[in-house]
Amino acid sequence: MEILRRLGLAALLLSAASAHAAPGIHLVPTGSVEVRTGPQGAWQAVSGPTALQSGQEVSTKDGSSAEISFSDGSKVRLAANTNFNVDKTEASESAFTLARGKLQAAFAGLFSSRIRLRTPTAVCAVRGTVFELSAGEKDTEVTMAEGLLEVKDDKGHEAVVSSEETLKIGQDGMGTPQLLSLTDSRALDAVRPMAVHQEMARDQTRAMMEELRNRELKANESQLGKDVIDAFGRRVRLEEYLLRPADNEFKLVFMSFRNDRFDWGHLIERFKYKIPDDLSQLADVVSGSFLSPTMPKNWLKYFEVYLTNRTDAVKETVTFGDPVLINFSGYGAAVGNRYYPSSMDYVQTLSGPGVPGGSRVQFQLTQDYNVGTGWLSWEQKVINNAGALDTYVHVALDPSNAADVALGATAVYADDKCDSCNGDPINTTIEPVTTVSFPSGRGKADYQVGTTYRDGSTVSSEKILVSNDGKILDFASVDADTFNKEGTYNLELVINSSLFQGRNIDVLLAPEILSQKKNATTSPDALKP
Amino acid sequence: MRAVWACCLCLASMPASAGNWKLLGRVDLMLGQYFFENSAGSLSGFGDADLQLTRSISPETGFFFTGRSVYTGFKQVNELAGGGTLFQQSIDNSLGAKLIRRYEGGYSLKPRVGVRSQLFRETRDEVWGKGLYDFTRYEGGVVWERKTRLGLSIPWTYQFSYDLYYTRYTRFKTLSSQFGSELAAPDPGSRVLDAITHQLGYRSEFDFPGFATGQLVYSLSLVSFLDQKVVSAQGQYLNAQRSDAAQTLSLGLSKRFLDLEALGRVRPVAGAGLTFSNQISNQNHFDTDPSRLKFVRGYYNYWEVRGGPNIGATFLKTMIHARVGYEYAARFYSGRLAQLADGSYTNDKLTQSSQSVFIEAGYPFWRGLELKARGTWSSTSSNTKFEQTYKYNYYDYNYFTGIEWKF
């Protein structure tokens, strides 16, 4: 501590870089101080600041002292009765000798590539150091304040001396460096700049482990798809859960949360029989439900997708009859008989405070297999101009008849009202108008399909493929199927309706949910070559 | 947050040395920008005030207070590159206190306490104080240290440490815990990110002859999540809570070489680091994607190796110093499976590797003032190609430049 105080150089080691004046050494004497050039030169008294050169020696007398300043900010204070030699001052190495006496030094370590300080019994290599050195003919004592000093004796021993250590080197070589006692006047403060810097660095290393752990948590949330940005620049938190309400059913709940809104939905699939614990096998069960040459062992009975903003909701359900064997040879002679659901009933229901009656079916498509005639029939119902659900398209097809399959129908029922299907003027009491648009422009994966019903109600769904950072995918040729594919973008689904009183439903979901919905209504057209 | 700023201002307004009190610190003011592949974030600012108010009572005893406030207006390369946004701002405030008590024979005992608050804005709809990942961390610890020697030549300081961290994400609760009742959703826990970490550490530092230093650091973190339930193979949430054990072993070496007689003399320093780490967790993962519905056991378990060299040089004529470093890291998950681009699972375990290069330079132009610049480039690749929600294969980089004041 005394060394640091007297030299006032503790900060030197921390800010040595601030001193980079022209190279040089200057001596400032106090009292009787002499300088000579070479061992044979005559001693000359100096009384004021004096430049020192290589080969010069400094000698302080009784009651005198001297301070030597270096151009890099380093300082050496010579005590009384000290002989100090400047042996060499080159860029590659500077060397000094303490022939006898005592010095206190603070070296920034920048003056030369190597700075060596010799005594009769030791050689010290300076590493950016504040220390005290005393030398006699037979012994040397080094006491470190702050920093490191490499010391060699003439017996080949070498030791790095660190802060608050003292080392004696005698004629028999060096001993082991000893720590100063805390009661020694040379002991440093417990808290001092260098120590605080060290403590801060060590604490930060340990805290960094915890910091990395926290970063990892955040990254995992993203990797699991729980934290994304939507097409409108808002952060969306996503959560999905799997439930098994019964052994033949599973339910996926998916949630999308933004700062000012919460949208959620679910997907339900119910099967005829128990489904395996490993649900990854379910895709095969679903595909086996349709058009299988053999009777499926298990099949889909019910499918439901439900989306809501907590006020308004849209629900789409498909109910399946058990498979029956149908002659599909009209789709190709080799196709022959296939198992296919005896019925499929697809229903779209809107609900909310703006929906007449709180809830109503907006669209329905029923497909039946008439065992007696061997025909498939389709009946599509939509909201008409009176706001009631009414039959719009009603046709039948003999799937074993290739000509009918090519034509698309075998018979049209009397209650069919699709006049435009026959080339007649549109039936304005019932035929809905469907429009396709690209809200973000043609080159973007932002695809909107809107339907206007004859009572003035509208329903539209906008599908957007959006990257993690909220950018809409550039896409040259977008169509409805683009959004059913698994890919590297998130799917944002926005449902609008005139019945939602200005609100909408806006969820991010796995594209596979739409894909499953499509698969759940696989039609015989899949048999076409 | 106001209290933290008030303390920082209070510290900053004190003279650098008042009685036996000393004020140390530095202030950085920078400008920087973040790039993710071909996309660029906007040019933004960075400010860092790091202060220590110290008081030494005697060679045996002393203490110091720390205060730090960091504002980052641009994204750092190591911050959620694959899953986040170009836009990110953060404010990181911390306060701490540490007591140093030294005993004869080189022994020291160093208890500390601290608190840290980190606020994020990562999207346009987030406002300060309402970031999803804002957290407050309360921490305390104690270090037992011995300063001794390894043989005659080498000073050796070793430490045993224990640190306790309690991290609370102020706004992060599962959606299920907030809205689950109306959805009939299961209960995965509410504050699933909150955790208590018990960290045991060992550290050794050596000063070798020949201007070389070395260090060895070992750390074992036992992490108890307070409300994150373990998911089962059926997608159900069990009563057991998630707990992780993570350990790290790091080795570091640096050596100063003789000055080069070029450009007015150049002082080179070379270093290298090598780190091994692993994590074991009892948590699993259930992929609820409708086409996969896959259970992945030991989803968070991995081991990792990381290391690389760095070279620094100080140009002694101008005191300009520069450093360039390279790091390679590879992580091997023992349970997590690699996925194809369409999301389907392969039988291979997920591996990730990354490379990064940094270059930094400083020029101390007047007293404690220094001009600084730093740039970092990193590239990450993986055997998983499924990037619907997170990018595993990308490159990103950033730079910042400004001024630092040390006192």
Describe how the helices and strands are arranged.
The complex is a heterodimer of chains A (about 525) and B (about 400).
Chain A: H1 2-7, H2 12-15, E1 25-30, E2 33-37, E3 44-46, E4 50-52, E5 56-60, E6 65-70, E7 75-78, E8 83-89, E9 93-107, E10 114-118, E11 122-135, E12 140-153, E13 158-161, E14 165-170, E15 173-174, E16 178-179, H3 193-223, E17 227-229, E18 235-246, E19 249-258, E20 261-271, H4 282-288, E21 300-308, E22 313-320, E23 323-327, E24 337-341, E25 343-351, E26 359-370, E27 375-383, E28 389-397, H5 402-407, E29 411-412, E30 433-437, E31 446-452, E32 458-466, E33 490-497, E34 504-509, H6 511-519
Parallel strand pairs in A: 9-10
Antiparallel strand pairs in A: 1-4, 1-6, 2-3, 2-5, 5-8, 6-7, 7-9, 8-9, 9-11, 10-11, 11-12, 12-13, 12-14, 14-15, 14-16, 17-18, 18-19, 19-20, 20-21, 21-22, 22-25, 23-24, 25-26, 26-27, 27-28, 28-29, 30-31, 31-32, 32-33, 33-34
Chain B: H1 2-13, E1 17-18, E2 21-36, E3 39-40, E4 44-56, E5 61-72, E6 89-103, E7 107-121, E8 135-150, E9 154-169, H2 175-183, E10 195-208, E11 212-231, E12 237-256, E13 266-281, E14 285-287, E15 294-296, E16 302-315, E17 320-339, E18 345-366, E19 369-382, E20 394-406
Antiparallel strand pairs in B: 1-2, 2-3, 2-4, 2-20, 4-5, 5-6, 6-7, 7-8, 8-9, 9-10, 10-11, 11-12, 12-13, 13-16, 14-15, 16-17, 17-18, 18-19, 19-20
